[in-house]
Each structure stands twice: as structure tokens, then as C-alpha cells.
Description:
The protein has 15 helices and 32 strands. The chain is of the alpha/beta class. The protein folds into 2 domains: 26-350, 4-Layer Sandwich (Purple Acid Phosphatase, chain A, domain 2), CATH 3.60.21; 360-562, 5'-Nucleotidase, C-terminal domain (5'-nucleotidase,  domain 2), CATH 3.90.780.10. The strands form 8 sheets. Strands 1, 4, 5, 6, 8, 16, 17 and 18 form an 8-stranded mixed sheet that branches. The radius of gyration is 24 Å and the shape is globular.
Amino acid sequence: MNRAWIVLMLLGCQSCTRSSSSKQRVSILAMTDWHASFGERETATGAAGGLPWFAAAVAARRAVDPDLLLLDAGDGFQGDPMANEQLGQATVEAFTLLGVDASAVGNHEFDHGPCRAGVCDDPHPQRGAFRSAARRAEYAYLTANVTDASGKAWAPEGVQASRIFSRNGVKIGVFGLTSQDTPTTTKRSGIADLQFTDVVPAAERTARSLRADGADVVVALAHVTGDCRDAPADAPCVPDGELGRLLTELPSGTLDLIIAGHAHQMMQGRVGETVFVEAGSKGAVLGQIDVLVDPANGGSVEVHPRPLWVLDHAPVDPWCSPGTEYPSAPRAVGGVPLEPSAEAISLARKLEVWNGPGCVEVGCLQSDALRGPPSAEGHGLGGMVSDALLSAFPDAAVAVQNAGGLRDDLGAGPVRQRDVDRVMPFRDHANLVELSGADLLRALEVGTSGAHGLLLPAGLTYTMSAGDGVARDLNGDGQRSLWERDRLCSVMVAGEPLDVSATYSVVVSDFLLGGGDHQSSGLGRGENPEPGMRVADAIRAHITAGGSKCRMVSDTPRIAVTDCDPDW
């Protein structure tokens, strides 16, 4: 396939994609889980994304079709450490630069909590940062399934359930959905007064309302659980989780398109009459969808997703090289020659994304510290972080880190502050708590279920089943959810079997202590908390403690996955 045809396929043109002169056409670009990714991401073959190239890709599509919609499926906040200091305000600037039309409210939109002096001034004690960002945004933040404690729709300024856009004579109704799991995937303290209702009835109700208001096409921006990782390799992609329920439980014709987020997956497909697209994460992928509406045929709708555009390119970011200019010459990005956005470069420079405090060298590692597959969890990066937490409280017996909180790997050699912050971008703090052996056992049971990633320990080891385990109903709701599955077979603390009647001193993040990752009945029951340093600071201190020698990374397995029987 020659380059001209690749460019034509990716960028398109009005004459070559219009299947009939009687049909009205709308182009939609899809993005998700941007996570404040101003800089490019390393890949096995080079790099991908980076705001200057993502903005250039959007501009290239908009040059062909000025009336396109750019829609985001949530989690624009939380990622680059310099952007995090702006409490979401930097993401609003980036999305405004991109020309985003609407964004779903993702779980990480709630992460930054209250405002901080000099950054924003909304007085809300729990969500001042997000409220300030949403109020400033020139685009809409959408969610149709979040209510306050009284059941009234949650709609601070800048947030609404849905919006109708008009493009090329077509009315496109767009609404947002926020996962019902949000209370377990962000700090509970920031959302304790909110309720996240079932996405399926919320979608049906909102879609019906949009149709009644004249929408020709209905699009859901769904920041929800579900992916195709467990689907057979030779079968069509049919997601599980909340996304799967939206695709299979709604009446036929409810939704024309779902732009999904939360799973960080590259996937698209069609289930019944509904197309779904998820465009990866961190500004490395752009989804492209053509929608055709035929007024001569009763307003029939056709939805045609194009191949996902992976924005891979040769590395160019001038990391920690003061005075080095970001290259301005065009280069191939996902097979298309693009010139980086000068506005995006200027915004990244303003945030010191490529230089500044993140470039301070904190130490070095003798070997790579990597996030591993389930059979290897407990050493590598997970073990190092748990060791760092244990070191932060010398009197502690045990420390645990949730695997989902580790967002990047550390390579052998010098480690800079930005590397540490990429591993742990959240502002989680370590706490020393007293925890009964029974509650510690429950915490590990929930952690091994497979719902959120394993709990990575220091001071203990455990064995878990490679099978599906034992299904239970821990919260008494009549359902046996994935997080309630028990796969735990044995636990050893300091070389002795765990004693359910004993009390252990355990180091845990405030995210887990607050019930995150379904830990309300486990780590969330810790008593007499003694707050300590940020988890990121504990990691840095652990690496720095290596002194003139590079820190060794433990290669001792702490978790064994076998064919054992989880029968306690």
C-alpha cells in the first residue's frame, strides 16, 4: 500500500467518503484517557503521541472536514506531574487548543480534590478543582448517571447530562456515562456525597430524551468498565463489563455509537445496531468514525468506523535538555507526514513538561523495575514500591500497594523525579494502621479476585489459585461480582501463617484506606491511622537511600500462582 493511499484512508475527503449525494455526512473523532499526556510515550519501536503531534493529527482531519466533532470519553486529568500541579486546569487548556466539543466525566476527573491557592479558587471542599476546571472549559463535561445524595442530577456549572450538536444538517445527541465503579477507583473522600447509578437505565432514559428533542444520531461517551481481553482471538470483539451491558441490554436502536474509555484498550466493533470505539489512551491513538444519515430513507443511520490511527513516530521530545528546541519539521506520524503544533509546543513549554523540577536525578537502579503479569507480581516494581512503603514506617510489619496505582515502569540506570512521578502520578499518602488478621485476610482475598489488579506486598507472601476461585456475595446485594471472588490459598507473615486473631501494623495508601479497589471490608477497616509521606516521596526516598550505589531491585517472588484450592 503506497503512502498516498494511506494518507487518503486516514485523512479522508468529502468526495471519497460520501456514499450517496442524498446522504448527510458527519465525521467524528474519538479520544479517551488522555491523562494529561503532554509528552510522547515510549514504545517498543520508538514513541507515540505527545500533544504537539496529537494536535497536528486533529488539525489535519479538521482541514479536510471543518465541521467534524471531537469527542472525549473521559479521564483527561491525572498524569503528567507538571500538569497535575495545575489541578486539571492544564487539561482544559489542552482540550481547548484541540477543539474538543464534549468530554465524559471520568473517575479521575475527581482526583484533584479541593482548590489550592494560586491555582483555582472554587470553595467546594471536595471537588473545587474539577468544578473550577469545568466552569472554565469551552466544551461540555457530560454525565447522565451521577446524582447527589437526594437523587437529584449532579450538574455543577459546566457539567450536564447531554448536549445536541448540529453538523451538516444532522443533529447529533451526545451524552456521558461515568462508571458505577467510580467510588472504588478514585478517592472516596472526594465523592462521598455523590451516587453513581446503573449506566444501562441512565443510557436508555437519556437516549430517549435526546430522540424526543430531535436528535438524528445518538452517541454515548461511556467511561465505563469492559473490554475484549477475554474474548476468543478468532471471535468478534464483544466487550464484557458495563460496556458489554450497554451493547446487549439496551433496546435495539437506542444508541448508534458508543465512544468508550476507562480500559485503555484499542478496540472497535459492532454489536447489533451499535458501533463501539475505544481509542487507547494517553494521546497515542485517534478514533475516526463516519456517520451517514439518509433523510430520503426515514432518517436511517449508518455508522462506519475507520481504522484506529496510531500516532507512532520517531522519538523527538527533548527531555531534560535545557535549550534544546522541539523539532518543528514535519515527520511521519502513523504513516502521515505532520508538522507539530506550535501552540501545543508553547503550552508544554509553559508547563515545563520537558525540563524543570522533573529532571532532577534522585538516584539509580541496578536493573529494570517493571510491572509484571499476574504470575510475576510481587517483585520488580511492585515489590520495590511495597519495600519503599515499609521503609517509610520502620515499626510496620506489612506494606501493600495496589497494582492499579502503578502507572509506568522504571528502567535500569539513572532515575529522575519525573520517572518516579510517572510511576505514581496520584497524590496518595502512606498511612500506618492497625489491622486485624481477619481483615488483612479479607483484603488479600479481594485483591486476588482479579477485579482491580493484585495487592503487592512487603513483609508477607501469599499463594493464589490460577483458576476462577470461589464466587461469594460479600456485600449481600444478591450478586456475585468479580471483586467478591476468592482465589487466595495461603498467607505467610514474617515466615509464619497469618493469624486471623492477631493485630498487624500495615502500611497502606489513603486510597485503599478509604475503600478504593473494593477494600471497604479489608484495608478500609484499618484503625488508628498514622499519616505519613506521599507514596511518590517514599519511592524517591527508597531509591535515593542507595547512595553512591545504584539501588538493587528485589527479584524474590512474593506471590505464587498455582493450582491450589482456595479453601480456608
